[in-house]
Automatic annotation (TrEMBL):
Cited InterPro entries: Aminotrans_IV, Aminotrans_IV_CS, Aminotransferase-like, B_amino_transII, BCAT-like_C, BCAT-like_N, BCAT_family
PROSITE patterns given in the database record: AA_TRANSFER_CLASS_4
Family under the similarity heading: Belongs to the class-IV pyridoxal-phosphate-dependent aminotransferase family.
Modification sites for N6-(pyridoxal phosphate)lysine: 269
A GO molecular-function annotation: branched-chain-amino-acid transaminase activity
Protein name as annotated: Branched-chain-amino-acid aminotransferase
Lineage of source species: Eukaryota, Fungi, Dikarya, Ascomycota, Pezizomycotina
A single GO BP: L-leucine biosynthetic process
GO CC terms, sorted: mitochondrion
């Protein structure tokens, strides 16, 4: 399993040192139990990479007055005004505005660290107009789902990866650190509290969207490291986002559109990655496309499809069948949990013939729209799909690139053969049809 890097690589050693030193300082103040005794910047980077990969907890023996995030201190206040649950497929569910009865909030200050978490009725937040997050994009979040399985159980899907990635995101934008295991405990508690009502056993195959978020609530203006922050977790009703018949229609980005760049923050799940993309996304939808296919550089290298990772299945000029997606090393794209799971399942199950499916080589490398265009022209492109938490596994049927319409084959009705089998494997794990270590069962509360 490839690790989630905490710091992006940089050609400028001085800038890299500053980033690593800043993260070390952030961890030592906000979550000292995460900081390992290290002697060099390289060692620190390796330690944090390991931390983000497997959630290991380290100690360094350094005394600190700051309190760490501690889920065992949770204070629970249940609502006296329960909210109605929208019917599946209803306008209320489709609005993406309806949240469950409760939420969790935790406040952090530079003076005292993390306060006791609170589970309480869902409601508005109170922020000053000068709050840092409103002016300087000091905000990050995660996207997860709670599933009601066909075996009646509630499940999360690889939630430790989301918690590790959120730690990485907070450190990238100077928000306080935390033990990922404690964040996971809070997420599980909220799911156990609201899941039984909002995902009843009579609705197998349904899900709620989980949004852990951290914002800088510091009320002082000025470009500086925030001294106050708020972590909150909500559960939201969300519609299925299945593509229309024929697969996703993608509009390849133009030269004047850049989503992310090497040395930037495209690898972190921060709000600043999304707002600037909305103009292009809105333009694409007006033209009849669901998402932008984001390209980078003069080579038009493919990065992401909207906010999802992008995959192609093609034959090389030598006749080798490959599943190809963009690499993580430049930190331009997000290390998606669905992306990682697709790669791991494909390597484990599709490396050799699987039923009627030919064995396939799994490749992470740069590839360009010119290569896709050539593969379509020569009949070597087999299928393509996007992968992410919101869209899940969505087949791609069409790409518009520099005035040309490229039709992507979809040979299994509404999906390509490899797209279909990978999607079914993941659905089986998420909804309990396959017992797998990636399915995290949530014990329900009465």
């Amino acid at each position: 399993m490839s690790p989630i890097a905490v710091t992006p690589p940089s050609e400028d050693a001085t800038a890299s040192d500053l980033t690593i030193n800043g993260i070390e300082n952030n961890l030592s103040k906000a979550a000292p139990s995460l900081l390992h005794s290290v002697g060099t910047n390289d060692a620190l980077s390796n330690t944090l990479t390991t931390l983000a990969s497997n959630g290991t907890k380290f100690t360094n023996g350094t005394a600190t007055p700051l309190a760490e995030l501690d889920a065992s201190l949770l204070i629970t206040t249940l609502t006296t005004s329960p909210r109605p649950v929208p019917a599946p497929g209803s306008p209320e569910q489709a609005s993406q505005k309806v949240c469950t009865d409760h939420m969790i909030t935790v406040r952090w200050t530079a003076q005292h660290g993390w306060e006791a978490p609170s589970l309480h009725p869902y409601g508005p937040l109170s922020l000053m107009p000068t709050a840092s997050c409103l002016h300087y994009a000091t905000e990050c979040f995660e996207g997860m789902k709670l599933y009601r399985g066909h075996d009646d159980k509630l499940r999360l899907f690889r939630p430790e990866l989301n918690c590790n990635r959120m730690l990485m995101s907070t450190n990238r934008i100077a928000l306080p650190s935390f033990p990922p295991t404690e964040l996971l405990k809070l997420i599980v508690k909220l799911c156990a509290t609201d899941g039984p009502k909002w995902l009843p056993k009579s609705r197998p195959g349904e899900f709620l969207y989980i949004r852990p978020t951290m914002i800088a609530s510091d009320p002082a203006l000025g470009v500086q490291r925030p001294k106050e922050a708020l972590l909150f977790i909500i559960l939201t009703c969300f519609p299925r986002m299945d593509p229309t018949s024929g697969g996703l229609r993608l509009l390849a980005s133009r030269d004047d559109m850049v989503r992310a760049w090497p040395g930037g923050f495209g690898y972190a799940k921060v709000g600043a990655n999304y707002g600037p993309s909305l103009v292009a996304q809105g333009e694409a939808r007006q033209m009849g496309y669901e998402q932008i296919l984001w390209l980078f550089g003069e080579e038009c290298n493919v990065t992401e499809a909207g906010a999802s990772n992008f995959f192609v299945v093609w034959r090389t000029l030598e006749g080798k069948l490959q599943l190809v997606t963009a690499p993580l090393r430049e930190r331009i794209i997000l290390d998606g949990v669905t992306r990682r799971s697709v790669l791991e399942l494909a390597r484990a199950r599709l490396g050799k013939r699987c039923g009627a499916l030919e064995g396939i080589e799994i490749v992470e490398r740069k590839f360009s729209m010119f290569e896709i265009e050539e593969a379509v022209k020569e009949g070597r492109l087999i299928e393509a799909f996007a992968a992410g938490t919101a869209f899940f596994i969505a087949p791609v049927g069409h790409i518009h690139f520099r005035g040309k319409d490229l039709d992507i084959p979809i040979k299994e009705g509404e999906s390509g053969a490899y797209t279909k089998v990978i999607k079914n494997w993941l659905k089986g794990i998420m909804w309990g049809k396959e017992q797998h270590e990636w399915g995290y069962v949530v014990e329900e509360e009465d």
